[in-house]
């Protein structure tokens, strides 16, 4: 079976349209509306999140089931964060995201959901504060909100989307585009293969990353350790949440 036979018609049309010659009127019409849509998403996000106070973004898979140990850990991490004075921001969907919002809600903390419209998997969970649910069309706008309004990042096991969010945060910190906020990876067994590849291939073999960049994140195994990393980071600056 050829590769093209595995692509549905909608995807084929997107590929064909990328090679299609368009006149100026078509470009002006379609791209102008896209710009207005992007602007509206930024404005909506800024207005709803500008006053949420100190929060931690929790990333992780939408496919994780409630009986999975990482779901339970994410729920506990979120609850502990709220008890320590933080609100919780998630991607607003099921799985780890749901667990994060559920944990925050259980402690009456701020529970933010940055949902994304997708053809499968994603729908907003029921544990998000109604005034703090935002649904985006554009991943890049959503990622700005994750980073702009978070004082730390807890990364649970996940797939491509979680890796994208993790490396986005790492890149912005590495390049000094944002402050050096704490990043915590939860689940040593899950992350060990990736971390070994970063060290042996990116650092030692190819010199594409500095060894010091491994200090941009911590790897832990328990919710208590995850929250402690964030608390310890801010205690260095005599800072604490001020809800």
UniProtKB/TrEMBL annotation:
Keyword Hydrolase in annotation: yes
Tagged with keyword Hydrolase: yes
EC category name: hydrolase
Entry protein name: Cytokinin riboside 5'-monophosphate phosphoribohydrolase
Lineage top rank: taxon: Bacteria
Keywords: Cytokinin biosynthesis, Hydrolase
EC assignment: 3.2.2.n1
Pfam families according to UniProt: Lysine_decarbox (PF03641)
Organism this protein belongs to: Marivirga lumbricoides
Sample GO molecular function, one term: AMP nucleosidase activity
GO biological process: cytokinin biosynthetic process
């Amino acid at each position: 079976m050829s590769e093209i036979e595995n692509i549905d018609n909608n995807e084929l049309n997107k590929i064909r349209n990328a090679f299609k010659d368009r006149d100026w009127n078509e470009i002006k019409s379609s791209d102008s509306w896209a710009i207005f849509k992007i602007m509206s998403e930024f404005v909506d996000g800024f207005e709803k999140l500008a006053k949420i106070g100190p929060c931690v973004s929790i990333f992780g898979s939408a496919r994780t089931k409630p009986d999975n140990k990482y779901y339970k850990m994410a729920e506990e991490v979120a609850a502990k964060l709220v008890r320590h004075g933080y609100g919780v921001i998630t991607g607003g969907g099921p799985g780890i995201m749901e667990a994060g919002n559920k944990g925050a809600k259980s402690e009456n903390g701020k529970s933010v959901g940055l949902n994304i419209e997708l053809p499968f998997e994603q729908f907003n969970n029921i544990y998000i504060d109604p005034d703090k649910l935002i649904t985006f069309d554009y991943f890049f706008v959503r990622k700005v909100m994750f980073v702009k309004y978070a004082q730390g990042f807890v990364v649970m096991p996940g797939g491509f989307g979680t890796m994208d969010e993790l490396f986005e945060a790492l890149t912005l910190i590495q390049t000094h585009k944002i402050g050096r906020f704490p990043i915590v990876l939860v689940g040593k067994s899950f992350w060990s293969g990736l971390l070994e590849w970063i060290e042996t291939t990116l650092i030692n073999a190819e010199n594409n990353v500095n060894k010091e960049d491994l200090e941009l994140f911590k790897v832990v195994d328990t919710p208590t350790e995850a929250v402690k990393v964030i608390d310890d980071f801010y205690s260095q600056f005599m800072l604490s949440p001020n809800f």
